[in-house]
Amino acid sequence: MLAQTDRATGQPKGVTPDLARELGRRLGVPVEFVIFDTAGKVLEAVKSGAWDIAFVAIEPARATEIEFTAPYVVIDGTYMVPADSPLKTIDDVDRPGVRIAVGLGSAYDLYLTRTIRNATIVRATAGGGREMIDLFLKDKLEVAAGVRQPLVAYAATNPNVRVMDGRFMEIRQALGTPKVALPARATWPRSSRT
User: Is residue 128 domain-resident?
Assistant: First the structure.
């Protein structure tokens, strides 16, 4: 998706690493990648100074600590359900008795925590992605929430699940800087218009 590990070099590859390298080139600074397996861990590390810029989804809970650019990509957050589920549409999910698997601290966890009124959110604490799918399967939950592309890829390998049409949210992926770093950014060259 946005970043993977290149098996040949062991280095990150994909849209996000390419953007980071180009930013470093334009600023004339070296780029060192600090890898986090979940977006929640990126937020936890903001106060320690572990990173200078991050590529994460814009979320109000994160905006207290991170200043965001405009999104560089918008990704669908959607649901996967058992193939025989009576849940047919996105609107069917928020009802009593429905349990939704999410990755702890993910953009869709934060969004659903704010918006779900009747269903129950169950968090995969080991991370997002595959751990969330494993939780959904192991505990026989009614719904898994996540990024459309990985859910569709998984569903293509398992005829016992299906991905719903539509989306419950737009995941707006952006570049972010720690808010504590903003005073230093004030000295960056500003573009001028004539």
Answer: yes
Q: How many domains does the chain divide into?
A: 2
C-alpha dist (Å) from residue 102 to 77, 89, 135, 187: 11, 18, 9, 40
132: buried, middle or exposed (CB in 10 Å: 19+, 13-18, 0-12)? buried
Q: Which residue has the tokens 């929430």?
A: 145
Residue 83: pLDDT above 90?
yes
DSSP 8-state secondary structure symbol assigned to residue 164: P
pLDDT of residue 144: 97
Task: State which residues form the domain around 123.
Answer: 74-171
> Which three-class secondary structure string do you get for 60-99?
HHHHCCEEECCCCEEEEEEEEEECCCCCCCHHHCCCCCCE
